[in-house]
Design goal:
Blueprint: H1 2-15, E1 23-27, E2 30-33, H2 34-48, H3 56-79, H4 86-97, H5 103-112, H6 117-138, H7 145-163, E3 166-168
Antiparallel strand pairs: 1-2, 1-3
Helix pairs in contact: 2-3, 4-6, 6-7
């Protein structure tokens, strides 16, 4: 009787539990959580110096960016690419900090954006890594090096998305 009562209490608790951080997409076996989408929106807005827009449309865009990032990350892990030079990341972080009158003002802005300096530094490092991946993987053409490598990258990414098992749960983007 005691076991049945405990089971009923546990089941009752589960049935009223609220999903706090649902999965909004799955790439292969890699889940992308709603909190990942919101974090991406906060980081992007902070770096662009604009307020966070967490509308369903912007969340969908962020989810798509994160899907692309999972695909790129798999390629990076399989391809023997080196991590970016820390000095490049530090240089980007210094550029961001220059927007603020002091280190304290920067720190307050980071906290107000619901971020950490560590998450910001990681995000900047990821951006450098992606740019280096594009350069290493797709090279550059003498005529228009940036456009040529971007076109090749986009073609590759489109093909990779088509070959990957991707599930998007748009109903979880609110």
């Amino acid at each position: 009787m005691k076991r049945i009562l405990c089971t009923l209490v546990v089941l009752a608790g589960l049935s009223s539990a609220e999903i706090v951080d649902g999965v909004v997409a799955i790439v292969g076996a890699q889940p992308i959580k709603h909190s990942d989408v919101l974090q991406d929106l906060r980081l992007t807005a902070f770096l662009n110096g604009v307020p966070v827009d967490a509308s369903a449309e912007r969340q969908q865009e962020a989810a798509n960016r994160l899907i692309d990032q999972v695909i790129i990350r798999v390629q990076l892990n399989n391809g023997g690419y080196n991590p970016p030079d820390e000095s490049k990341i530090e240089a980007l972080l210094k550029q961001v900090k220059k927007r603020y009158p002091s280190e304290a003002a920067f720190s307050r802005a980071v906290v107000a954006a619901n971020l950490t300096e560590t998450s910001l530094q990681w995000y900047l490092g990821w951006q450098v890594m992606v740019l280096e991946f594009i350069d290493q993987r797709f090279g550059t053409a003498p005529e228009d090096p940036v456009q040529e490598s971007n076109d090749q990258f986009i073609t590759w990414l489109d093909a990779a998305r088509k070959n990957e098992r991707i599930t998007i749960r748009t109903e979880r983007l609110k």
